[in-house]
Amino acid sequence: MMITMHYLDAIDSHTGGEPTRVVLTGFPDLGSGPLAARRMLLQQHHDAFRAAIAAEPRGSDPLVCAILTPPVDPAALTGVLFVNNVGTLGMCGHGMIGLVHTLASLGRMGTGTYRIETPVGLVAVERHEDGSVSVENVESYRLQASIPLDVPGHGRIKGDVAWGGNWFFITHDCPAPLVRSNLGTLTAYAANIRSALGQAGISGADGVEIDHIELQSPSPTPNLDARNFVLCPGMAYDRSPCGTGTSATLACLAEDGRLPPGAIWRQESFVGSVFEASYRPGKRGIWPRIRGRAHLTAHTRLVIDPADPFAFGIP
Ligand code: PYC
Fold first, then answer.
1. What is the per-residue pLDDT across 135-190, written as a single tens digit (0 to 9) for each?
2. Burial class, 255, CB count within 10 angstroms (exposed 0-12 / middle 13-18 / buried 19+)
3. Confidence (pTM)
4. pLDDT number for residue 237
């Protein structure tokens, strides 16, 4: 139980409109075990701190926080755990771009290639001369292709189950154009898909819940390959084109023979921001590479006041 004010230093940024908060100091110690174990430790013992930094009133629904933790492999620059308003993430593409931009702004990295540990594997990042960042994500693959799903109110749809560092259900069956005026309709539809997946017992590998739903459509913008709408686990939509969702999409495109290795895929987000993506073949699937750009928005000192009834979020 805290009896004095607690402070955490953080830097906020956004990547294609999607916010990231890099927590530099003040988060409870997560030990020195493998990052997957530290993720579990966080879930089991420090969930209140997660809510304090990521959820309202200090955070917001779309915000992803990047908690720095020492790497296991000394060759890696750092370890990172990503959390949001409702829990933890395996990986986060927009968040990784925000993290690299933030560390560069602090002088902790220059241009060139670095490795960063996540609970789902090692990620290679490259900061380019122009300030953009490439992320070579964890190996991504499609688990199930074109599976039918009955969605109440919509009938039978089809979609792919794919891994891009998080689990995705990706469908081209959209109830309305992917434009902002349809936000309510798209959110309700994607939420229905998520419940229908649960009810039908459709999951990622090892029974892990599919907690990200990606709607894909052609982009109305010339020279862009597709536009998406990604519903994140906490019911917010991703303002960025979603790095892990784009990775999962690439895995499906590769398997369908629709995108050759090395070719550029320009993925547009729901708000019009763009990631450039490509891949090299892997053993099980593909190794995706996502390029985007982040911008700083704040240097913040978060305060947790023990007298605040909402110090650890709004229950
Ligand atoms: O960019 O991978 C991503 C992501 C996941 C959730 C929000 N953004």
1. 999 999 999 999 999 999 999 999 999 999 999 999 999 999 999 999 999 999 99
2. middle
3. 0.98
4. 98
User: pLDDT tens digit string along 252-284?
Assistant: 999 999 999 999 999 999 999 999 999 999 999
Distance 201 CA to ligand 1 centre (A): 24
What is the best residue among 94, 137, 211, 228 to mutate for testing ligand 1's pocket, by most ligand atoms within 8 Å of CB? 94
Q: Cα–Cα distance between 250 and 245 in angstroms, integer?
A: 9
| Average per-residue pLDDT for the chain | 97
CA of 238 to the centre of ligand 1 (A): 7
**Ligand 1-lining residues (CB < 6 angstroms):** 18, 64, 92-94, 232, 238, 240, 242-244
Question: Residue 244 in 3-state DSSP?
Answer: helix
Inter-residue contact 60 to 19 (CB < 8 Å)? yes
| Ligand 1 atom having least distance to the Cα of 244 | 2
